Amino acid sequence: MSRMLCQSICLFGQKLVRRRSLEPRDGSEGRMARCLNTLDLVSLGVGNTLGAGVYILAGAVARDIAGPSIVLCFLVAALSSVLSGLCYAEFGARVPCSGSAYLYSYVTVGQLCAFITGWNLILSYIIIAASVARAWSSAFDSLIRNHISQVFKETFSLHVPHFLAKYPDFFALSLVLLLMGVLVLGVRTSALVNKMFTGINLLVLSFIILTGFIKGDLHNWQLTEQDYKLATAGSNDTSRLGPLGSGGFAPFGFGGILRGAATCFYGFIGFDIIATAGEEAVNPQRSIPLGIVISLFVCFLAYFGVSASLTLMLPYYQIRPDSPLPQAFLQVGWAPAGYIVAVGTLCGLLCSLLGAMFSMSRVTFAMADDGLLFRGLAWLHARTRTPLVAIVASGTLAGIMALLFKFSDLVDLMCTGTLLAYSLVVFSVLVLRYQPEHNISKNDRTQDTTEVDPEVKASPLESVPEGIISRTLKCLCNPISTTPTLKSGQIVYGCAFLLVFLLTILSLLLALWPSQVFSGDPGFTAGAVLLLLLIAGITVIIWRQPQNPSPLPFRVPALPVLPVLSIFVNVYLMMQMSSVTWAQFGIWNAMGLAIYFGYGIRHSLEERRDPQLPASTSQTLHEHTPGAESS
Fold first, then answer.
1. So what family is this one in (predicted)?
2. Domain residues of the chain, as ranges?
3. How far is Cα 146 from Cα 167, in angstroms, rounded to an integer?
4. Into which CATH architecture does domain 37-233+249-432 fall?
5. What pLDDT digit, counting tens, does each position of 406-445 carry?
6. How far apart, in whole angstroms, are the C-alpha atoms of residue 362 and residue 374?
7. What is the H or E stretch that residue 553 is in?
8. Residue 181 above 70 pLDDT?
9. Half-sphere CA count of 411, side-chain side, radius 13 A
């Protein structure tokens, strides 16, 4: 009885880590319309990333956190985003299918992690879509002197808990339904609409940048205490100006630059929409890497230019965080330019909303197509070849949330889900590069795992353990083969999981007790140094393993250092979230796990394909071929 119980538990555990094949399934190619070129993907990435953040974020960070050095904050944030972006680029070249981080996790880490990734991506996109819809409604309402909100408040005022809005925003709901109709018409139509509004947004941003450099004053990057006194009519009381710092280009010091970079990082969230369009790109192996790199570069130039112009046009302590650019133009005598800024804000928000709804429907479709969500969500329209049911279902949910909820308390929750997805993609690239390319059957795999070195076979029985230990230690730092083997792949898997564990502990240490670590406290400093040494040692072991030599249109450079840095940055940012955010995160995932264990684990295509002998964590990523599974 106990043996049968153990076998059942092992079988159940194997189901949780069962992985998909990297190759597209039979019949999956050509179902969705491949019509997006590189320009379309760049437009999607830029439009989805440059929303209202470029008009608001720069003012908020410059005013209270970084001052003029906000330009360095965006540089650091862009470099951090590039770490994840390069990993997305390599996976996009490997796996030209819908699903983004969800699919990448499925083929590398396993089914349960993939479901959690996809489930949290859906939550992130829902929050983004609903909050952007309400922001667009609010921005448009302010242009017509708040007539819409006044009518809604007088007619539909809600006296409800604090997490609901004060009034239902039917205008935001209508906007979501309108863009849902655009997506239903087909990917060509939605790409055309996105390109049009992204182009207008970039023209407005170019106008802002050029105007700022023309009307700006370099002295605003060199402010002193004398300037603060002049700003208060010669008074020594400068407290009403808010936090000032010590003056100069970086008034809040190096710490302000780092804190500002952590905030500015969220301004680059959104480029992963390019990866969700993999199944609709004409040449995904080339256009996805190019699209991600170019879109991140364009977004960095926009953020860098706008923040530089803003801090040149007026002193940072005079910036109004809620409307920095209109007030800056008013300060330099160009008040009508505020209307141009308003047009750019509306176009940027519209692109972000369209991008969030596009990504949300594609991830939902990919999960339903794999059987982890209800299969009806994977139905494609015969003419437009779009996931109609997934678009309608996810769009309706986002519309209802835009109608009723406020989202000021859910932004961190959205960022947590996105950072989790980024981390899993980076982890996937790290382990995938070191896996063997060839497909092997189950019988060959069994023989391979039990293969013993000839010297060990010839040795006496009592010396076998010593030989095995010696051979294992030798494989860690001096592998015999120059190409990946099953054993070297398993070593990388184990080391990568250990790395994530150690990086998480280090991030917790730096997030909860930073002053003790850097002030020289013996216990905390010694712990941090020990963790760094262990991380460096494990990174060297991974670096010594043979990499897969197969050619790819794009490969992440500096493996494994770059992925390790990226995982650390993402995990450290996640550790900045509050306990309330983590509680919300737990509730959402508990709902998802109920769906997974109640439906997904029994209806997944991998379950139907091989219900009795699912793939284990020791298998390679290419083992799920029809011939191997039928053998």
1. Belongs to the amino acid-polyamine-organocation (APC) superfamily. Cationic amino acid transporter (CAT) (TC 2.A.3.3) family.
2. 37-233+249-432, 457-575
3. 13
4. Up-down Bundle (1.20)
5. 776 677 888 888 888 888 888 988 888 888 864 323 333 3
6. 14
7. none
8. yes
9. 11
